[in-house]
């Protein structure tokens, strides 16, 4: 299920990143008195009561040397494009400025729900200042204080109230959602195009099945697939779409809705530092991952070159040791037929459930093969294990003392589980928990 997205807009220094940090619950972006400081992160998960949603700090989408007003307009456009609900933040101590009115004009035209947050209302006496903000025409303004954490509950109640109700027809559960990520020009759009023209692939515009018009539905060999954010790969020509922060934001949004993420590399240019960063997003999100080496037509290939390239990939992406590598050419369609089967396998493994008794047979064999370590004279005792979640498969191992479960032993158990059940393409998680 896709999480709702909330964007914070407003002119510099009204407190966007302060509020972002409050709501996300960690200090992940830099707050400074200088307007327009660079932010570390602009997209993160937040939670209110029982609802989780994704939050964008549009202030972090910085388009270089553009005049302030142009930047603000672009940030508002990002919010309008990406968000389900927009928090329009103002400074209660300064009232409505000309810049605020500019932003308001864009938001009027957007048809997206807008909630007004009047920030820097640090004490209750200031609350009478908020009446002026009714004149913006977005309904009730909510007095808040980002630095003191005041009023955020009422603001969020209002925001959450606008989230779309999940009543639309959903795709059947066995649909595989996947996305393609990679730096510009690795061939994402070309690969989507080639896949859509593959033999026996049926592309359908299934109406009303999703809110995201940017998705593409396809079917092959009785399996439904959705390619997420296909339109995000087309260059639509808006200025902010070329900024790195914005591409990261799009990628994170797409990854989050995916079962399987294809990390594209370019055989022609080789592996770059940026590839690693991008691949890291997929891994961190716990999605199934396939590494796709595209443009294989540009390489004079024999089995040896493939092995050599594979070695390089493995060295660069050690954290993705579970990801299969598919070599292909979007252009000539060479080896393209290997991709969909790889996606199916990775997706099945990502959702795989292992019966507790079968799992414990494997764990007991592992214990017999490699006895548990002792730490300061105390031996780790493993009692039993059980799978507690899928997507990705997650296991709890009950032990006498979790502190005795070292990384290396956990890694050993993970490898035994992988050997036994073949979780190719998916990360798996193992947690140690105390049981007397
Ligand atoms: P942004 O440019 O809109 O992201 O604004 P920042 O979050 O960087 O905040 C700008 C300045 O306003 C910083 O010095 C913050 O400490 C300050 N600030 C943010 N929220 C509040 C608040 O609720 N009360 C007060 N007094 N200052 C705040
Ligand atoms: P994107 O930015 O990741 O969506 O990349 P594009 O799909 O726009 O491709 C970038 C460039 O690489 C274009 O000039 C494509 O024609 C070219 N390209 C894409 N796939 C291949 C391939 O498999 N082989 C070769 N030789 N070129 C490719």
UniProtKB/TrEMBL annotation:
SUPFAM superfamilies: P-loop containing nucleoside triphosphate hydrolases. Residues 4-167, 176-351 form the EngA-type G domain. Keywords: GTP-binding, Nucleotide-binding, Repeat, Ribosome biogenesis. GTP 1 binds at residues 10-17, 57-61, 119-122. It holds the Pfam family MMR_HSR1. Signal peptide: none annotated. PROSITE patterns: G_ENGA. CDD domains: EngA1, EngA2. GTP 2 binds at residues 182-189, 229-233, 294-297. InterPro entries: G_ENGA, GTP-bd, GTPase_Der, KH_dom-like, KH_dom-like_a/b, P-loop_NTPase, Small_GTP-bd. Belongs to the TRAFAC class TrmE-Era-EngA-EngB-Septin-like GTPase superfamily. EngA (Der) GTPase family. Associates with the 50S ribosomal subunit. HAMAP family: GTPase_Der (MF_00195). GTPase that plays an essential role in the late steps of ribosome biogenesis. This is GTPase Der.
């Amino acid at each position: 299920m896709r999480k709702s997205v909330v964007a914070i807009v407003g002119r510099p220094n009204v407190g966007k990143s302060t509020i972002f940090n409050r709501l996300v619950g960690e200090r992940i972006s830099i707050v400074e008195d200088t307007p327009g400081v660079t932010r570390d992160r602009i997209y993160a998960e937040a939670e209110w009561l029982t609802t989780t949603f994704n939050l964008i700090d549009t202030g972090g989408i910085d388009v270089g040397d553009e005049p302030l007003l142009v930047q603000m307009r672009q940030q508002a456009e990002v919010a309008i494009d990406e968000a389900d609900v927009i928090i329009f933040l103002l400074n209660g101590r300064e009232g409505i400025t000309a810049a605020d009115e500019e932003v308001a004009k864009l938001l009027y035209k957007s048809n997206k729900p807008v909630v007004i947050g009047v920030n820097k209302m640090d004490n209750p006496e200031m609350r009478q200042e908020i009446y002026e903000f009714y004149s913006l025409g977005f309904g009730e303004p909510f007095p808040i204080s980002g630095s003191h954490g005041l009023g955020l509950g009422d603001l969020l109640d209002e925001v959450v109230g606008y989230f779309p109700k999940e009543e639309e027809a959903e795709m059947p559960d066995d649909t595989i959602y996947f996305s393609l990520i990679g730096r510009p020009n690795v061939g994402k759009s070309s690969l989507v195009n080639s896949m859509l023209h593959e033999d026996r692939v049926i592309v359908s515009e299934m109406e009303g099945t999703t809110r995201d018009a940017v998705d593409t539905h396809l079917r092959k060999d009785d399996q439904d697939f959705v390619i997420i954010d296909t339109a995000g790969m087309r260059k639509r020509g808006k200025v902010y779409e070329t900024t790195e922060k914005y591409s990261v934001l799009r990628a994170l949004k797409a990854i989050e809705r995916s079962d399987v993420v294809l990390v594209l590399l370019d055989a022609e240019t080789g592996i770059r530092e940026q590839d690693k960063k991008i691949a890291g997003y997929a891994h961190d999100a716990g999605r199934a991952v396939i590494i796709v080496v595209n443009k294989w037509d540009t390489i004079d290939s024999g089995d040896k070159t493939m092995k050599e390239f594979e070695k390089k990939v493995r060295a660069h992406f050690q954290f993705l040791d579970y990801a299969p590598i598919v070599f292909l050419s979007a252009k000539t369609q060479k080896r393209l037929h290997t991709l969909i089967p790889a996606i199916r396998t990775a997706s099945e493994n990502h959702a795989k459930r292992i019966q507790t008794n079968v799992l414990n047979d494997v764990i007991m064999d592992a214990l017999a093969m490699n006895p548990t370590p002792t730490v300061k004279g105390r031996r780790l005792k493993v009692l039993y294990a059980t799978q507690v979640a899928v997507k990705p498969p997650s296991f709890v191992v009950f032990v006498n003392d979790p502190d005795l479960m070292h990384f290396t032993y956990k890694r050993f158990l993970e490898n035994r589980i992988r050997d036994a059940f073949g979780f190719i393409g998916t990360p798996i998680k193992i947690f140690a928990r105390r049981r007397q």
